[in-house]
Design goal:
about 150 residues, mainly alpha, 3 helices
Length: about 150
């Protein structure tokens, strides 16, 4: 019986370990996705800023050269840096997602497992039989009485 409880405890520990590993993996994936969204939002802000600057150059300064504007160049450099960060985060996400999944630990041989399962079934059957027997002793069946006319 102690061997059965050891097997059950080991199985529960392995299950908990698997849940913890999966939770950590999903947390990493979630953090990376949030980072990706933040970077995308920053890229969009910079594009919007760049568009505003280009509009200002074209509408206000008739002979402005957009490609030589210092502010526009700074915004473009910032966008390039953010796009590089975005690519890095996407590749990091792909690595985390493609990381090989750990295989469940195999404890003991299949014969040992089958013997343990048989023991568990026997113990469960004995317990159910005892429970049924005790419930039959405590509850007395009511005798049917004929209906009086």
């Amino acid at each position: 019986m102690a061997n059965l409880w050891d097997d059950i405890a080991r199985t529960i520990r392995e299950g908990v370990d698997t849940v913890v590993e999966k939770t950590e993996e999903l947390t990493r994936i979630g953090r990376i996705k949030v980072d990706i969204l933040n970077i995308k939002r920053n890229v969009e802000k910079n594009f919007s800023e760049l568009g505003g600057r280009v509009y200002q150059l074209i509408s206000k300064e008739k002979n402005a050269a957009i490609s030589t504007d210092k502010e526009a160049k700074e915004i473009i450099e910032c966008i390039k840096i953010l796009e590089k960060e975005l690519d890095d985060k996407k590749s990091e996400l792909a690595k985390v997602k493609s990381k090989p999944k750990p295989k469940p630990k195999q404890s003991g041989s299949s014969k040992e497992k089958s013997a343990t399962m048989t023991q568990a079934k026997k113990a469960s059957t004995k317990k159910a039989t005892r429970k049924a027997a005790s419930s039959n002793k405590t509850s007395s069946p009511k005798a049917k009485t004929p209906a009086k006319k």
